[in-house]
Design brief:
- It contains 14 helices and 17 strands.
């Protein structure tokens, strides 16, 4: 075994790599109007890059650093999923256990069909009491309601609060001193910001961003060093058993065998031929992204105080800089990070959004199976979601993954009065599934 000093030296980034990361961060911050950002990379459990950029407040020059604390939104789901897997390993909350006809595995994998309580026009009560949008297990639909219910199930099984369970099982044992359930009140805390024509403004809290409503779906706060420690320990087997970790970071499959590109608390992707488990996090005024390179255990975390900006392209560019790539043909440029955008798909996204806003869809665009499930009720739901947002101003490509014969393209949709995240699944040139969600 190498001595610690030699190990740290062998894992260290080169000055050229560090300079490239600084350059791409500067470009992304400028183009996406990000006031402050913290970024870290760890290899074999050793941090090899920790840096802060910009300001942690919207209208001051108080600098962000590597230890600045941000809200992490839906990265919370990783912690919830791990706690559930611990209970599953103890047989206290089996994956096949049912909650009102929906299994724990279907909640974890986002295949329950539950309406998300964070969707426009929804409340927690209305979403949890609404009928499922499809037969559980037959489709994939991102819903914060799934992870809210998992949090309540954990409390019911363990007889302790979610916050206490999180502290007892994860944050205290791993010494994650900057990771909390609910917003922190600390000296080095970032202020959530939004951008308008006059500059950065403090982001108001939305109703669903309260800690009691965000709950086990998106209420947590953390900093980059803590997230690196969390991801490495999860990967290294300190949190859940190895087979449980594999389930968390392997694409779930639907009843018909189609992959979803989502495990339990992680999206599953391939970046430049590397196997990736990652998850973004969005909550009013904050955007986050963390990822594990499953091939070698390299982990990264990016946190910012910009409202609903996808950091996936930046994460992919960082991976390109620091990892030995299995498929160099997919290497990106600074202006086009990630697997390349297909202009035809971008045009299709704009067409589909315009049609859905009008409550219709051209059936020739859909696979036969999706044409059946996209009924009048779902079309009305999409129309009710889209109309209040006004005109679509930008369809921003985030990433593309292909598993078997299905290609999934993710876009950030910027409207006059809001922002949505769209995932479009294509099979043989036809739309096989689509999801619209409010960006948490």
């Amino acid at each position: 075994m190498l001595p610690a000093a030699l190990l740290a030296t062998s894992l260290a980034l080169t000055p050229a790599q560090t300079a490239k990361i600084d350059a791409v961060v500067a470009q992304v911050m400028q183009s996406s109007h990000i006031p402050g950002l913290s970024l870290g990379i760890a290899r074999a459990g050793h941090a090899v890059f920790l840096r802060g950029y910009g300001t942690r407040e919207c209208a001051s020059q108080v600098r962000a650093n590597a230890y600045t604390v941000y809200r992490i939104g839906s990265i919370t789901k990783q912690f919830t999923a791990a706690l559930v897997m611990q209970e599953a390993d103890r047989s206290a909350l089996p994956l096949n256990a049912e909650l009102d006809g929906i299994t724990v595995a279907q909640l974890l994998s986002q295949t329950s069909g539950l309406v998300s309580y964070t969707d426009p026009g929804q409340t927690l009560d209305s979403a949890l009491n609404a009928p499922t949008q499809f037969t559980p297990g037959t489709q994939w639909q991102y819903s914060n309601s799934n992870y809210y219910l998992l949090g309540t199930a954990l409390q019911s099984v363990t007889k302790v609060s979610f916050a206490s369970l999180l502290a007892t099982r994860i944050t205290r044992p791993l010494h994650l001193t900057s990771t909390t359930f609910a917003p922190p009140r600390v000296e080095n805390e970032a202020q959530g910001c939004t951008w308008d024509a006059t500059g950065w403004q403090a982001a108001p809290d939305g109703a669903n961003d309260r800690a009691d409503l965000a709950f086990s779906a998106s209420a947590m706060s953390s900093n980059v060093p803590d997230l690196l420690t969390w991801l490495w320990n999860l990967y290294d087997g300190a949190i859940v058993a190895s087979d449980s970790f594999d389930q968390m970071t392997t694409s779930w499959t639907l009843a018909d065998g189609k992959p979803t590109n989502y495990g339990f608390g992680f999206f599953t992707d391939t970046w430049y031929g590397l196997r990736i488990a990652q998850h973004p996090g969005y909550i009013d005024g904050f955007s986050a992204e963390d990822a594990i390179v499953l091939d070698d255990g390299t982990v990264l975390a990016i946190l910012s105080n910009a409202d609903r900006v996808s950091l996936v392209p930046l994460a992919k560019s960082v991976v390109e800089i620091v990892e030995p790539l299995k498929n160099p043909a997919l290497v990106a440029t600074l202006s086009q990070p990630g697997v390349f955008e297909d202009p035809a798909v971008t045009a299709l996204v704009k067409t589909v959004v315009a049609q859905l806003a009008g409550g219709t869809i051209e059936r020739a665009l859909l696979t036969p199976s999706f044409a059946v499930t996209l009924d009048e009720s779902r079309l009305n739901g999409y129309a009710n979601m889209l109309r209040p947002l006004g005109n679509l101003e930008q369809a921003l490509f985030n990433q593309s993954t292909t598993v078997d014969a299905v290609t999934s393209d993710i876009y950030t949709l910027n409207f006059e009065h809001g922002r949505l995240r769209m995932t479009l699944n294509m099979r043989s040139g036809k739309i096989d599934a689509l999801t619209l969600e409010s960006g948490r």
